[in-house]
């Protein structure tokens, strides 16, 4: 079975379809590379692992790692493409407790997930439950401050809530004692591709993302637009030489980097 890329998951085989796809991939790789600095010899849970390539990156240094996702096809792809003795993949059910005992993991990663979650408190409580008392949770989510007008609903149809740095801190502090916030950026030739996409989408989607628009209507219209946009991105003419010169080492992570495309929360119980 071939797993198709979507606007909500990256498949390694498709990352050279266009400049836009490659930039998304570079930021995903950099996120996992950063998490790997905390994963050495740890028991790790990757919550929302998607196609599994990032989980496999962490498996290179972790004592053990389990990647979980609500998409069974993504889990099947991950199992068939990435295999290590310390690596496992498991399909889980949305809105149900995680199938692990308390304090099972030293590190939980959950990247580009929290913006999809309707009951964020329940999601965070489950993460805190499966973490050891001295464990670490790392969340990464698109930076709302770069993507949306202050009054605007997300232009991504599958995003329920988007967070800026302050918003992510506030929500993590509802369940975690010690929270640190970082941002992700890079050289202008790399990051401007994302920032320009954000600016274009917030303007194009504005009629459908006003607060007065019913949620069901917002999602329906934007999902249709997303399918057409994904088709254009997937059928792109490849990665330009200029953009292909960038790698994950070009991504910068810190509290004050600018412009920020993602915000990252590091939280301890």
Structure explained in plain terms:
By secondary structure, the protein is of the alpha/beta class. It has one domain (12-268): Vaccinia Virus protein VP39 (Rossmann fold, 3-Layer(aba) Sandwich), CATH 3.40.50. Helix content is 38%, strand content 20%. The protein is built from 9 helices and 8 strands. The chain has an 8-stranded mixed β-sheet. Strand 1 (43-47), helix 2 (53-59) and strand 2 form a beta-alpha-beta unit. Helix 1 runs parallel beside helix 2 (53-59) and helix 1 (19-39) packs across helix 7. It is globular and about 45 Å long. 46% of the residues are buried. Mean pLDDT is 92; it is low at 1-7.
At the fourth CATH level, what is the homologous superfamily? Vaccinia Virus protein VP39
Based on CA atoms alone, the radius of gyration comes out at 18 Å
User: What percent of residues adopt helix (DSSP H or I)?
Assistant: 25-40%
Largest sheet: 8 strands, mixed
Rounded mean pLDDT is 92
Number of domains: 1
User: Segments where pLDDT lies below 50 for 5+ residues?
Assistant: 1-7
Helices, by number, come to 9
CATH class term: Alpha Beta
| N-to-C order of helices and strands | HEHEHEEHEHHEHHHEE
How do the helices and strands line up, and which of them pair or pack?
Elements (H helix, E strand, L loop, with lengths): L18 H21 L3 E5 L5 H7 L4 E6 L2 H10 L5 E5 L13 E7 L8 H11 E12 L1 H4 L17 H8 L5 E8 L2 H17 L10 H20 L6 H4 L7 E3 L7 E7 L1
Parallel strand pairs: 1-2, 1-4, 2-3, 4-5
Antiparallel strand pairs: 5-8, 6-7, 6-8
Helix pairs in contact: 1-2, 1-7
């Amino acid at each position: 079975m071939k797993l198709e890329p979507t606007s909500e998951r990256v498949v390694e085989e498709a990352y050279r379809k266009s400049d836009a796809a490659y930039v998304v991939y570079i930021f995903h790789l950099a996120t996992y590379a950063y998490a790997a600095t905390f994963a050495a010899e740890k028991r790790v849970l990757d919550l929302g692992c998607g196609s599994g390539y990032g989980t496999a990156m962490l498996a290179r240094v972790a004592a053990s790692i389990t990647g979980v996702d609500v998409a069974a096809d993504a889990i099947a792809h991950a199992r068939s493409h990435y295999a290590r003795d310390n690596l496992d993949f498991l399909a889980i059910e949305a809105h149900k407790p995680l199938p692990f005992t308390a304090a099972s993991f030293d590190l939980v990663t959950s990247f580009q997930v929290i913006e999809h979650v309707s009951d964020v408190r329940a999601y965070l409580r489950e993460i805190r439950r499966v973490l050891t008392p001295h464990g670490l949770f790392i969340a990464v989510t698109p930076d709302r401050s770069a993507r949306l007008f202050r009054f605007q609903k997300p232009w991504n149809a599958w995003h329920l809530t988007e967070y800026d740095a302050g918003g992510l801190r506030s929500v993590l502090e509802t369940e975690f004692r010690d929270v640190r916030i970082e941002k992700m950026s890079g050289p202008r030739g790399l990051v401007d591709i994302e920032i320009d996409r954000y600016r274009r989408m917030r303007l194009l989607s504005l009629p459908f993302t006003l607060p007065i628009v019913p949620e069901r209507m917002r999602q329906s219209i934007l999902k249709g637009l997303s399918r057409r946009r994904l088709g254009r991105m997937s059928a792109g003419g490849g990665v330009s030489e200029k953009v292909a010169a960038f790698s994950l080492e070009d991504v910068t992570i810190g509290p004050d980097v600018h412009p920020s495309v993602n915000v990252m929360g590091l939280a301890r119980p």
